[in-house]
Amino acid sequence: METQNAFDISGKAAIVTGAALGIGFGIAKRFVESGADVLLADVNEVALKKAVGKLKGPGRAQTIVLDVASDEGWEKAVQACVEHFGKLDILVNNAGIYPQTPMLKMDPALFDRVYRINLRGTAFLSKAAALRMIQQGKGGRIINISSVDSVHPSMVGLAAYDASKGGVLSFTKNFALEMAPHGVLVNAIAPGGVATEGASRPLEGSGMTEAQMKAMMEGYIQNKIPLHRMGVPDDIAKAAVFLASSAADYMTGATIVVDGGMLLA
Q: Would you call 3 exposed, middle or buried from its count of C-beta atoms within 10 A (0-12, 13-18, 19+)?
């Protein structure tokens, strides 16, 4: 296989959740530029409309307003992708939230909300997509965006987030076993610190000002990231293209860490 063809995803049809901003938009952008057709799914309709207008490339782009925590949304998203593009080849489960609240102050409703979006939404949208991929009979790719926090906590206050992302990591491995006989490869990407719209604002529930958040992040970059920079969405997007392509044909149940060396520190 020629090297340039190994990473080819042109003509593939994908769903990317949380695609209006940040990592999700970065992945959608790379996919469209690489010739894949992408259904951008997000709960933020206004941001979604702005995002699709920024995409340029040989691939096509459509949008759907989707709350991954809603039981009604999973099959709706899969069906929308099939209606727009005739098939579904790739699912990227990126949608997630990360409110910062110490466990001793955690409200059960907030804990449940984190789990419904980060883990339950990932699991059941994966189920809906996998059923479609099995029906098509040509395999497929499911890529879950986990976190370095799934294996090592980064700070106090992310207990619910860390637990949910640890669940995503374990779900990825187990679902990979289940889907292997059908040729559906299930892998994860574990980002470290990534500069996004959300990361630049104080974490929900943290009580920090923007200045305090900026100072904390500067110290974090210098002391905790060996490459001395935050990641950018495209760092994660390029890993997603790899996992979506035939270059990753012999990978399933794996997690690619993209963290600038953060776990080393």
A: exposed
